[in-house]
Write a structure and sequence with these properties.
The structure is a single chain. By secondary structure, the protein is an alpha+beta fold. The protein folds into 2 domains: 114 residues, Lipocalin, CATH 2.40.128; 156 residues, no CATH class. Helices cover 32% and strands 22% of the residues. The strands form 2 sheets. The chain has an 8-stranded antiparallel β-sheet with strand order 8-7-6-5-4-3-10-9. The protein has a two-stranded antiparallel ribbon with strand order 1-2. Helix 2 runs antiparallel to helix 6. The longest helix is centred in the N-terminal third of the chain and has 21 residues. The protein is elongated. It starts with a helix and ends with a strand.
Length: 290
């Protein structure tokens, strides 16, 4: 019983920031600029225009930031020379040969090789982030965050994944043709006793440095209002352990009690259907409302 009672819930906030900071926008701009410089003609012009638009967001949304000061001074952001970006040396425009889509990896005019797929994906990630479709750090790796951002953009635009793959020129054209925030951030669901009331399926895992190394159990627990901000419930584990617990709710924060002693506390996720936690014994806990 104590193994489950002594659990503190927490919310893993990785990738759930409510707004992009100046440093995040600057990184997106740098990644997009690096990709743009691998192109020629109208393709490069289009990407660099997007870079300047991201930097303009830094000036508007974070005017007192270090990055904004650097932009106004036309200095350098990492490998990005702002003086050259905003006042480039004139050069004759070049058109891409027919059928050589720069996102599909075809060679640009005046280059001998294809665009690096990793740099191509970095540009897509940066553009998705700029439009509110959180794709994670622009690192050129198609992880879960990138997939979620890409799929969110498709949903908002009413596009089919099979027709607009993330590395296609068709998808890049739609992405570049959009502006402003495409993926709106959904407001957090308020957490009340009515919200968390019910049964939750859980999994408990204990790492090597915990009091119970290697332990892994699953089960179900219940949450029932007990008056005011207090709640009570029962739990049943796959290893046969059963018991009761009590606690308090304050905002999104749960406090778990064993008698008058605080055994743990935690936070309910923004969708109010997920909990994550870790107890004083070091064991981690995750649950989803049934």
């Amino acid at each position: 019983m104590r193994n489950l009672v002594a659990i503190v819930f927490y919310l893993a906030l990785t990738g759930l920031s409510l707004a992009e900071g100046a440093a995040d926008l600057a990184r997106n701009a740098q990644s997009l600029h690096q990709f743009g410089m691998s192109l020629e003609g109208p393709a490069r012009t289009s990407v660099l225009a997007d870079v300047r638009r991201i930097l303009d967001r830094v000036l508007v949304e974070h005017p007192t930031s270090r990055e904004a000061a650097t932009i106004r001074a036309r200095g350098r952001l990492g490998g990005l020379d702002l003086a050259t970006l905003y006042d480039p040396s004139p050069s004759p425009a070049q058109d891409l040969p027919p059928g050589t889509g720069f996102l599909s990896g075809g060679p640009s005019q005046g280059t001998a090789g294809a665009v690096d797929p990793k740099e191509r994906l970095k540009a897509v990630q940066a553009a998705l982030n700029d439009r509110g479709c959180k794709a994670g750090a622009p690192d050129g790796v198609a992880g879960r965050k990138t997939t979620r951002g890409y799929e969110a953009f498709l949903r908002e635009k009413g596009l089919k994944k099979g027709e607009y793959t993330i590395d296609s020129e068709a998808f890049w054209s739609v992405l570049q043709g959009s502006s402003g925030t495409v993926c709106e951030t959904m407001p957090a669901v308020p957490v009340t006793m009515a919200t968390i009331k019910g049964n939750w399926a859980f999994t408990l895992k204990c790492g090597r440095k915990t009091r119970h190394p290697g332990l892994k159990v699953s089960g179900v627990f219940s949450v029932q209002p007990a008056g005011g901000n207090r709640w009570t419930g029962r739990f049943s584990r796959s290893d046969g352990a059963r018991g009761r617990w009590t606690g308090k709710l304050a905002g999104r924060k749960l406090t778990f009690l064993s008698g008058s002693r605080v055994d743990g506390f935690g936070i309910v996720a923004e969708d109010a259907y997920v909990m994550h936690g870790r107890g004083s014994n070091g064991c981690g806990f995750s649950a989803r409302k049934r």
